[in-house]
Amino acid sequence: QLAGGIAHDFNNVLQAVQGGGTLILRRSGGDEATQRLVRMVLDATSRGASITRRLLAFSRRGELRAERIDTVALLADMQEILTHTLGSGIAVQVNVEPGLPELFVDKGQLETVLVNLATNARDAMADGGRLTITAATHQLGSGDQLVHDDRLRAGAYVRIVVDDTGSGMDAATLARASEPFFTTKPLGSGTGLGLAMARGFAAQSGGALTIESTLGQGTGITLWLPMSLAEATRPSPAPARQAPSGGYARILLTDDDALVRETLGEQLGEAGYVVTMAASGTQAIALLSQGLTIDLLVSDLSMLGMNGVTLIRQAQHLVPGLPAILLTGFATDAAASALGTSVAGAVSLLRKPVTLCELAERIETMLEGARQR
After folding, report:
1. Confidence category of residue 147, pLDDT binned at 50, 70, 90
2. I need a surface site. Which of 110, 121, 211, 289 has the fewest CB within 10 A?
């Protein structure tokens, strides 16, 4: 908690420094001395951000860096890795649907999730057993909402299922299995974060995680990753594309840190967006209630009073389907879990300090997704 809290506050400072430096660089008018000094500031900001990343890695908190990956090749590599790491008593089998599409996800996070799920499965098979990973496409209809996760939208998904023949879970354990810090393992043998992190990864990726288990008969955990993301191409970082309603996209930017709010707002305005700023979640909701028309909401997570998750949930109640981007000094498991359980619409999580190109790229991805829906 200490490491995450320090990283959060430090990242807010870095966000303001980076944003201000970028604005000065753009307005320097070719003054080489000024540009050299500003680049030194931005380089120092990058070094500071790398320090906070190490702090967050220590505290087991991180952000997603999505890329196109070959799903078939990744699962083949995972089979080889797991065969050597789970032990001779565990048979590892991978079944992949022919022609399975590429995924647009964080490769490292997906690999970590699969290793965690496989390790949990091994621990549930003390006397040996079989681990099966199955990957296939699945069309989820509006009438086929999953019993275990009714927030999963209808659409095309890639399903990655991790099945084991282990001890399984009773109903009481299953109900708490993905709670952060809940574990049935002995003291020192597990943190209880594996399933919580896996669920957070799935939710941040636009999908979900579901669990089915029967005591004495094994457990099956399914990662649902939306086909729309699986087939996506990386958008151009050019941030001034037109919004669906015509003109430049209208953005409501909410952050209770004045320095962060002003620098981000100035950057987005110079990039061509129409920006309205709010100093709190309450003020943002008041603006929407008074009829403010926007195409996308950008909000900080940790704010006094109404936090970012609550703001997004209430904003999407007022404007159904409103895409939103949540900015945070540290991407916590709790934040990802809250997004997965409290917010029904399209939401993306970005960790500060974020560059204008990174934020604009994510904005355009979210707007494109809104157009397709």
Report:
1. very low
2. 289
